Structures are given as C-alpha cells and as structure tokens.
Amino acid sequence: GPYSATAVEEIEMFFQRMLTPEAEYGPSFVALSILSDKTDVPDWDLFTSDINQALVAHQMRVDGDNSTSFYTLEFVRADPKGVLENPGHRSAVFRVVSPVSIFCPGEEAGKALKMLQLRQAAGNSNEGAPQLPDMTSVRAFNQEGQDFYTASLCFDILSTFFVAVFYQSSVDSDPEALVETYYQGLFKIDYVFTVFICLVLIVIDGVIYMKKAKTAKVFYHYLTFAGFMGYLLMIFHKPATTHHAYIQMFFLLKSISFTLGARQIRSGYPKEVMINSVIFQRSDILSFGAFMAYFSIPFMYELRVLLEYACTDSALDLYDWLKVENISRDLFRINVRNNTYRKLHPFGAPQPWWKKVFLEGGGLFLIIFSLLVGPFFVFSTSNPQVDINPVYDVRFNMSLVGAEHMFTYPIFDGGLRKTIETVSWTALHTDAPRPLINKPGQVQEVCLAQDSDSLWTLPPPSVAAMKKSLANGATLNTGWTFKRYLPVDNPVLYSKAVTYTFNEEEAAALLRVLDGEQQNVFLENIYPRVWHLHGKGHPVPRYASDQSISCSVSLNNFNSTSPWWSVDCGTYVQRGRSVVDKRGELDWFKPCSNFENGPEIVLISSEVPTGVFATFSQFVGGLTGVYVVYILTLASIVRGFTNNLVVNIPHVDLPSTHRLISLCSDIYRARQVGDFILEERLYWLLIRIYRSPSVLFEFTRTVDGSALPERPKFRS
Q1: Residue 22, Cβ density class (10 Å: 0-12 exposed, 13-18 middle, ≥19 buried)
Q2: Angular region, 545: left φ>0, alpha ψ -120 to 50, beta rest
Q3: C-alpha distances out from residue 239 to 192, 243, 535, 593, Å
C-alpha cells in the first residue's frame, strides 16, 4: 500500500544520505550581504519573502514544477555591526529549510543565490519578480561533523581488554583458564583468533576514520554489528558457556561503541581528523594527565603515528613526520606548564612549604626511598602472603658404593609407607635449643617403614663383586627427596648424598650378613637427623642440632627368591644434663616407635611466598631480580631526569609557545586541504627556527614582547 511504499522510499532516502560523502547534517545556513545606506535599516522579513519567491522561481525553471523539492530561507538574525565594519553593507544569516530529499541544501541554496546575483548584475531579472537589493556576497555553511572516534576507540579497547581477560572463563567454562594459560605458555587458537579479530577491527576503523571514508564506515558498521550479534548469540546459547554476565557486559561495551559509530555516521566526519590539533585545544593538568596516560601505554603512540602516516597524504617522509610530532608533543607539555604553574605562581614568590614537603621535595624523596627499601618488606615474613611450605612426600634410599665408585647397588628404598606430622620442637628430643622459626607448622617429623619398598634382587656375579669391594673399602650413601607445592619453579628438593665409610669391623659384619651368617649389622651416625629446607637450593643438614641417626641394617628372607632389606633406626639423646661425649651418659631413643622404627628425619622448612605473591615472585625473580632488574632500571630513569638538563634549556624553557603551536597547526591544516607545497615550506620554516637559537629566542617571546614568561606580580 501507500504506507509501505512511503516507508521503502524513506529507508532508501536514509541510506542514500548516509552513502553520500558530501551530505550535510544538522541545520544549513546562508550568510548574505546587501548594499544599504548607513541610516537605512532593511526590512529583513520583506527581503526573506522576496528572496524565497526568487528561489522558488529559479528552482521551477531549473527542475520543473515539483513543489516537494523546493527549499526556502528562514531569517535567523542580522548583523548590526556589519555597517560599521563594512560601510554601505548590511548582512544577515538565513536558515535553509528543505525536504530530506535534498542532501546538500546549504550548498544548493548558495549556488542558486549566486546565480540570482549574476542574473541581477546582468539585468536579466524576470518580469513580475520582486526587485531584490543588490547582493554583494553569498556564503553557505552548515554544522561541521562531530568527532566521536576517540570515545568509540576507548570503548573498543575496553571491550578487547575484556575479551582478553574473560573470554576463556566464560566460553571454556574454566575460571582458571587464564592462569593455566600463563603456566603452560600456550593459548587456545579460538582465544587468539577472537582477540586478533578485535584488534584488526580497531585498526580498520582507524583507517576509515583517517581517510574519512564515509561509505566504508557504513558498510563496516553494519557488517561488524551483524557479525558480533550473530557470534554473541551463538556463544550465549551454547550449553558449555557459563558466566553469561561476562557476555552481557561485553555486549554492553560494544553497544556503546556501535552507538557512537552510528552517531559518527549520522553527523559525518569533521574536516580535520586525528588528534594533532586537539592536543592544543586544552592546556591544563587534566588533559596533560590523559595524554601522559595514553603516551605511557607501550607502542600505542608509535602505532598511531605510523598508521596515521600510512593513511595520510603528505609531502614529508617518515623521519620529517616524526620530528613534527615530537615538536608538537614537546610544545604541548611546555604550554601546559606555562598555563598552569607559571601563570599562577607569582614571579619571585618562594615555593610553598606544602609543595616542597609533600610533592616535589619530600614526596619524591619518599617515593624513591620507598622503592629502595620497600622490596625488603614485601619479600619478608611480615607479608601476609608468606606462609609455611610443608613437605607432603618424602623418598629415602640407601646404596652400597664400591671402591673407586666401580658400582652402586641400592639396598633400601623407602617412602611409600610413611607418616609426616607436625610436632613441637621439645617433643623431638633434639638436645638443641629451639631454632628461629615463626610458625609451628615449619617443623615436621617424617617416619618411614623399616622394611624396604622394593625387593633386593642381584645376580650372583654382582653379589660377588660387592663382597669383594666391601673388603677393599666400600661406602654407604644415603639420599633424600622432598616434594612440596611451592615454590612453583622448584617444588622438589634433592639432598646431597651423605657418605658413610665402613670400618673393618662393620665391613666384616656386613659380609657375614650377606652370607647369612649374621642377622644384622649396627651402623652408627649414618646421616644427620635435622635438616633445613630453603625455598630454593639443596637441603642443609645438621641444622640447629648435631644429632645423627644410627640404624641396625638386616637382610630378610636370605637365600629365597624375594629378599629385602630392613633398617631399625634411632638416635642417642642426653640423659638430663649429661656431657654429650660420654656414651655412658646418653640414652638410646627411638623417635618412630609409634610407627615402625624405620628411618626418621626432622625437617625445618623456610617460609615462602604463596598465592598471588608466589606467582609475582617467580615472575620478577625474587628479591634479587627486583633489585638487579627493576631497581637499577628505575635508577637509570631517575638519573635521566636529573642529567643533561642544561642541553634542553633552549627548547624547553620557552616563555611562550603560541607562535610555534600556530605554525604546527598550519602544517596540519595544509596537509588536510592537500596543499603539500605549503606544508613542506612551513615544515622547513619550523626547522630553520629550531636550528637558530636566536630566531627561536625571538619567536618565543610573549605577546607583549617580553623574554620572560607571563607571571603574576609577587606581593610581599
């Protein structure tokens, strides 16, 4: 019906307007100047009626009798000062009222008025048409397109960051996916592809913005909107998807970005894009902080400059382009200082005490001092993230090592059956004062079963070689393996082998045990009893106590198909306050009597970083890594702020920057309008100014010609 046809026509008209690059948005205006006496005030209402009749007649003559496409003028305001500035002339501004089918009403009205002006000057006015005053100038203008790109870019970056953090936890239903990815060092391809697509779309949108390609922006807007909507709906309704709130939050961020993009299409692009000239529009602390935050993001500034250079026509090469950018950036910083500190602080006035104490002097001192001593407190036991690091698994082995290490035969392997308990230091009877520990959980006692976890099966030639080696000086080696959860990069500790050398009597007794002539052999002080486990490094024996474990070693099921070794262990403890070197005043103590009297060891574990602090400590390399890498790097940066300040005086301590900023802005404007000859001339003018200190000195004087910055007077 008519309604559907009208709707189709309106939709078609809407897309035609969006796809027309030169289409005008917002109200369009025409400024007219007419000849008039100084005392004669024109009747602008009558003039508006007459000019509209002339415009309608002109449109009917050009386009035919189509009343729906006529545009007219509506009086807005007159310029009462026009007669003073330009004697004999009166000027006024008119709004162009036109149907939506006319995409450029201001431009078309301006052309029509100029044609009427020419016809009037040639004396070809139509008969019966009202006599118009002599028009001396016609200028059409309309509201310039607004810039929504910066706000849209911020929400695109936020949404991309949101994807990078929460994609795996919502799509893969794994809240620890990002942490696991960090430890594994591998990323899932769908995660990488999604983040990559978001980044590529940001780059494409930036290229479209810099080229002011309105048609491309329309297709980009609708295609990305349809793509994101379809992809999000598909993910949202997948059975494996959890945390739907994350997807809704991402959709909210993208919706704001799409809204800003639609506003950009609706208003059109401004004549000057990118933010070169925007930097100079505000020179306050807020804009300076925003710019420094943007500038501090790694590679963000460099990528923007390179992309802008690749997409913008210019007579300058990349090296010259970067010099202009550097000068503009430095001028912005200087201008902020001139308009904030120097404009407010009186000349010759002493610095306020609060500024010296809390900000520049004492404040910076406190920051640097805190950075120097702060890591000591962070990596100390006062950190709540530092906790005990208990052992959860222990393995123990004994091996007979032949003379000159000709062979090694394991005889005892324990650890499958054990007890690991946290006990008090006094209950251990270590005959030593309590070590320096902060938490009771740092002390653990490990008791192993007295029977080996593996059978002793050696071929007869190996047994014969071992017996021969015992007679020539074999040794007994013991070793421990401790497993902990932390630190992440060193959870397993291996003790150094403790070597026990047999004397002649013990070697002979062990030979009799191997021949089945004796039940067991007693070996005294085989290995130290108390060990200290650091976060990293080998375990330290004989920590806080010199006690050693002595064991009775026996071979069970001799001359059978399944022999095994067993050890019955204990230690000597003081009787009251006896002297240690007198064996008669020591008591035999079996610490693992409640289990199986097997090998026993006492462990004192150091406190280590846990939780997030453990990951941070591994990343920075601990306290040593912080001081070697980060503190030294910070020291070089701080030293850079205090060195070579004199070299920068000619280019930094500028009393005024308004002339240099205007010159840089003219370079940008010449580039925007395509006048590349003027662009390069202005560039070389800027270079010549910076090459000559005397010219730069004169060029940076204040408006009143002073070589000192504009400062308020000091009132004592």
Answers
A1: exposed
A2: beta
A3: 22, 12, 44, 57
Higher pLDDT among residues 402 and 422, named by residue: 422
* 656's tokens: 């005024």
Instruction: Kindly tell me the burial class for residue 530, based on how many C-beta atoms sit within 10 Å of its own C-beta (0-12, 13-18, 19 or more).
Output: buried
Beta carbons of 135 and 112 less than 8 angstroms apart: no
d(CA 396, CA 409): 14
Dump the DSSP string for 232-246.
HHHHHT-TT---HHH
Residue 89 near residue 136, CB atoms below 8 Å: yes
Question: Is residue 487 reached through a cis peptide bond, with omega within 30 degrees of 0 on the bond before it?
Answer: yes
What are phi and psi for residue 427, nearest 5 degrees? -75, -10
Kindly state the average pLDDT of the residues 455-481: 83
Render 307-345 in DSSP notation, one character per residue.
HHHHHS--SS-HHHHHHHHHHHHHHHHHHHHHHTHHHHS
- Supply the DSSP symbol for 279: G
DSSP helix/strand/coil, 664: helix
- Strand order from edge to edge, sheet including 28-35: 72-79, 89-97, 28-35, 135-142
Q: Is 421 helix (H, G, I), strand (E, B) or coil?
A: strand
pLDDT tens track for 555-612:
988 878 889 999 999 999 887 544 444 455 678 889 988 888 899 999 999 888 887 7
Please give the full DSSP string across 23-39, using - where no structure is assigned: ---S-EEEEEEEE--SS
Residues 6+ apart with CB under 8 A from 82: 33, 89, 90, 91
11 pLDDT band, cuts 50/70/90, is: low
Q: What span, in angstroms and rounded, lies between the C-alpha atoms of 688 and 694? A: 11
- Amino acid 546 reads D
pLDDT digits (tens, 9 = 90+) for 221-255: 999 999 999 988 888 888 777 778 888 899 999 99
Cα(549)–Cα(481) distance, rounded to whole angstroms? 17
Which amino acid is it at 650?
Answer: P
- Please give the single-letter amino acid code of residue 686: L
Chain segment 203-212, per-residue pLDDT in tens:
999 999 888 8
- State mean pLDDT over 311-339: 91
pLDDT(280) > 70: no
Distances (CA, A) of 372 to 368, 381, 636: 6, 18, 13
Q: Is the dihedral of CA 705, 706, 709, 711 positive or negative?
A: negative
Distances (CA, A) of 612 to 386, 487, 569: 10, 12, 41
pLDDT bracket for residue 402 (50, 70, 90): confident
